Amino acid sequence: MGGLVVSLGTSQLHHSSFFGIQPAVAQRISPSDVWQLVYQQLPDLPKENTYVNKETGKVAETNTLANRLIRYHVYVKERSPIYRLDWKLTLADYLGANEVMYDTTYPGNDTLRQNPIEGDRAAINRLSRRQRDALVQTLVDIFNPHLQNTNNQPSPSTSTTPQKPQTGGADLLK
Description:
- By secondary structure, this protein is mainly alpha-helical.
- 34% of the residues lie in helices and 5% in strands.
């Protein structure tokens, strides 16, 4: 599989340098690298890697659930890998609550003796909601490292103490 270009900047506008903003920096991330990072961070995630390669007749150990999930998400559904909602939609596909998944286009169908779609759907279904949320967060963190550790945390300028409203703002409109 070819690499996947992941934007790591704040702007994707091609003409953004006109406004003094530099175009986004891109980093090439291969799905073959990402699935390994997923298992490093979530070692209890099922691997589902006992399927046999059609050509070699050997077990395709690197053809894992995480690998197929990522390929399904990015290449089959063409969803963005940097947004939680997109990953949740993909998991909803696996759970039968969103879009129909087709055997013929599922990753591994063309390279494995047995299509792994049913086993993968069952594995995702066995995960608890907390495990699925951790999987989604891990994938987002890997594909979009600039957003790591910023979720659900107040910014340094955000005060949690209620402030007295300022008055006189309407006078500025005169």
